[in-house]
C-alpha cells in the first residue's frame, strides 16, 4: 500500500462525570460498577459542544500537526452516530471551519462506532487512486444514552481526525494493510426519531464484538503473514475496559501492548472516536519503527483492522497540538444535575 498517516489530532471535552455520581442517583453500587466496567469517569460535552464542534477542533489539531495547507484536502469524511442534524452534513461544517472548502468532496458516515475507520479506508482509496492528494477522516461522537440505563456509565464525548496521504519520508505512520469483517448483527440500534439507542443484551459480546474484532484481526494477520509478536502496540475499540483486554488476550497480545492506548477508564466510550483516540494516544508515545495493530468495531456489525509502521514524522511537530494526555488531564467534574441539564436528557 502507498498510503500513510501524515497528520492527526484529537479533542476531548473537559467536563467529567464520575461513575459513582451516576450510581448514587440510581441507588447503585458505584465501586462495583467501576470494577465491572473498568471505567472511572466519562467525558461530557459542554452545552455549546456537539459532534460538529468536536470534529472541527480535532481537524484543526490534525492540520497543525501535519503542517499542510487545509486547501490541499481533497476529501473530508466525518463518521459519527450523533451527527447534530438528521439532514445536513457535519462534514461541510468542518470543511468551512478549517478553510478547506469548496474544492473537495465531503460526506457523513454512519456505522455505529467504526464510521471513523471506514472514513480512513475511503481516504486511502481516494489517495491511492490519485483522485486527491490528501483526505481527512474523522471519528467523533457525543454518545446518546438513556438516563438510568447501562450505557449511561460509559457513553462519552470526543473525537479524532486523521489526514491520509502518500508514503513519504515524513510519514507519521505508514499503513501496511487493512482488512474488514462485516455481518448483519442486531446487537445495538436506534430507530429514527428515537432519542436513545437500545442494545440486544446477549448479542453484544461474543456474536458481535468478539466475533468481528477477532475475525478482522486474524484476517489481517493472515493477509500480512504476521503475528502479535511482530507488533509493539495494539489498539481495540473500547466499549468498556474489559472487552479490549479480553480480545487482546485471545489474539495473543499481552496487556502491556494494549495499555498505552487504553483510554476508556479516564474518558469513557467515545464511540466513533474510541479506537482512533486510542491510536492517537499510542502515536503520542511511539518511536520510529514501532508497529501498531488497530481494530475498530461498530455495532450492527463490523470491524476494520489496520497494520501501521511508525515513521520518522512522528517526532516532527509533536508539540504543535495537544496530546491525548493533555486533554485527559484537563478536566472539570460536574454533578449529575449539571450533566442532565446541559445534555437536555429526557427520562422515559
UniProtKB/TrEMBL annotation:
One of its GO terms (biological process) is isopentenyl diphosphate biosynthetic process, mevalonate pathway. GO terms for molecular function: acetyl-CoA C-acetyltransferase activity; hydroxymethylglutaryl-CoA synthase activity. CDD domains: init_cond_enzymes (cd00827). It holds the Pfam family ACP_syn_III_C. (3S)-3-hydroxy-3-methylglutaryl-CoA binds at residues 29, 113, 154, 204, 237, 246, 269, 299. Belongs to the thiolase-like superfamily. Archaeal HMG-CoA synthase family. Interacts with acetoacetyl-CoA thiolase that catalyzes the precedent step in the pathway and with a DUF35 protein. The acetoacetyl-CoA thiolase/HMG-CoA synthase complex channels the intermediate via a fused CoA-binding site, which allows for efficient coupling of the endergonic thiolase reaction with the exergonic HMGCS reaction. Catalyzes the condensation of acetyl-CoA with acetoacetyl-CoA to form 3-hydroxy-3-methylglutaryl-CoA (HMG-CoA). Functions in the mevalonate (MVA) pathway leading to isopentenyl diphosphate (IPP), a key precursor for the biosynthesis of isoprenoid compounds that are building blocks of archaeal membrane lipids. This is Hydroxymethylglutaryl-CoA synthase. It comes from candidate division MSBL1 archaeon SCGC-AAA259B11.
Amino acid at each position: 500500500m502507498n498510503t500513510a498517516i501524515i497528520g492527526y489530532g484529537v479533542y476531548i471535552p473537559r467536563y467529567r462525570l464520575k461513575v459513582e455520581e451516576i450510581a448514587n442517583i440510581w441507588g447503585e453500587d458505584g465501586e462495583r460498577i467501576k470494577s465491572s466496567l473498568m471505567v472511572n469517569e466519562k467525558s461530557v460535552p459542554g452545552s455549546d459542544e456537539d459532534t460538529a464542534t468536536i470534529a472541527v477542533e480535532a481537524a484543526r489539531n490534525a492540520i497543525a500537526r501535519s503542517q499542510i495547507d487545509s486547501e490541499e484536502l481533497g476529501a473530508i469524511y466525518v463518521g459519527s452516530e450523533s451527527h447534530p442534524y438528521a439532514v445536513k452534513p457535519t462534514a461541510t461544517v468542518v470543511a468551512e471551519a478549517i478553510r478547506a472548502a469548496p474544492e473537495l468532496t465531503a460526506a457523513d458516515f454512519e456505522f455505529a462506532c467504526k464510521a471513523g475507520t471506514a472514513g480512513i479506508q475511503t481516504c486511502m482509496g481516494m489517495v491511492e487512486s490519485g483522485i486527491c492528494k490528501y483526505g481527512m477522516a474523522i471519528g467523533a461522537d457525543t454518545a446518546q444514552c438513556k438516563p438510568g440505563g447501562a450505557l449511561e456509565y460509559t457513553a462519552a464525548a470526543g473525537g479524532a481526525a486523521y489526514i491520509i496521504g502518500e508514503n513519504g519520508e515524513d510519514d507519521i505512520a505508514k499503513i501496511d494493510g487493512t482488512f474488514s469483517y462485516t455481518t448483519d448483527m442486531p446487537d445495538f440500534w436506534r430507530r429514527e426519531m428515537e432519542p436513545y439507542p437500545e442494545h440486544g443484551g446477549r448479542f453484544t459480546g461474543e456474536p458481535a464484538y468478539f466475533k468481528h474484532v477477532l475475525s478482522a484481526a486474524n484476517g489481517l494477520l493472515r493477509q500480512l503473514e504476521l503475528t502479535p509478536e511482530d507488533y509493539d502496540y495494539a489498539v481495540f475499540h473500547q466499549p468498556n475496559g474489559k472487552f479490549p483486554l479480553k480480545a487482546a488476550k485471545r489474539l495473543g497480545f499481552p496487556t502491556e501492548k494494549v495499555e498505552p492506548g487504553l483510554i476508556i477508564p479516564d474518558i469513557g466510550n467515545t464511540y466513533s472516536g474510541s479506537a482512533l483516540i486510542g491510536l492517537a494516544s499510542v502515536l503520542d508515545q511511539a518511536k520510529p519503527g514501532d508497529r501498531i495493530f488497530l481494530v475498530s468495531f461498530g455495532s450492527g456489525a463490523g470491524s476494520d483492522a489496520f497494520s501501521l509502521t511508525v515513521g520518522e514524522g512522528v517526532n516532527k511537530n509533536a508539540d504543535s497540538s495537544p496530546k491525548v494526555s493533555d486533554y485527559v488531564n484537563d478536566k472539570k467534574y460536574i454533578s449529575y444535575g449539571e450533566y442532565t441539564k446541559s445534555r437536555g436528557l429526557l427520562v422515559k
